[in-house]
């Protein structure tokens, strides 16, 4: 895997490191909290750092309970297929809070996504209708970022969609593999890496990132 010297026009995007995606959470990702110390270490390399939070209304359209269905089934919503999840990251609840071990005081922005009741948003750039922007691309551009490094949860959903949409928005995108953990539903992890590669997303290891001496 390639090594990267971190520059002033790089941004770190920390995706959904929230209690509900960690052990004991409503939609726990295996070993999810393992990303926390890695991300804490990475953050100091970057001058632009953005955190995201999955941030759903009660009764959100992505919740199985809303439709009287079982979690992990897929249904068709107005904008296309939607995997149904256990209720998770309900706005303002402890499960939606960032993991307490995440220590990134220099992060300048926290972006919340998935707050429209009828539309999911795995991507931090664009909601699942593929039309509604979150404002992140404009923020990053105005901050002078051209390349974004992505870490967090989950590799095969919010990280992957964010990475691909970052490419679509014109950024160079690097996913820091060991600073992510996956849900891996029916082969979704392997598919996600293939899709990311097809869009020109580059893979890195946290140990391969450094600041010039
Ligand atoms: C996520 C499923 C549902 C994620 C969010 O952060 O990857 N996955 N909501
Ligand atoms: Zn969600």
Shape label: globular
Bound molecules: pyrazine-2-carboxylic acid, zinc ion
> What's the level 1 CATH class of the domain at 10-56 and 91-181?
Alpha Beta
What is the helix content? 10-25%
Number of strands: 10
Can you give the mean pLDDT?
Answer: 98
3D structure, described in words:
The protein is built from four helices and ten strands, in the order ββαββββαβαβαββ. With 213 residues, it is α/β, with parallel strands linked by helices. It has a domain at 10-56 and 91-181: Isochorismatase-like (Rossmann fold, 3-Layer(aba) Sandwich). The strands form three sheets. It has a six-stranded parallel sheet with strand order 6-3-2-7-8-9. Helix 3 (155-168) runs parallel beside helix 4 (188-198). The chain starts with a strand and ends with a strand. The mean pLDDT is 98. The structure holds pyrazine-2-carboxylic acid and zinc ion. Residues 16, 21, 54, 85, 122, 153-154, 157-158 line the site of pyrazine-2-carboxylic acid. Residues 54, 56, 62, 85, 88-89, 114 line the site of zinc ion.
Summarize the structure.
By secondary structure, the chain is α/β, with parallel strands linked by helices.
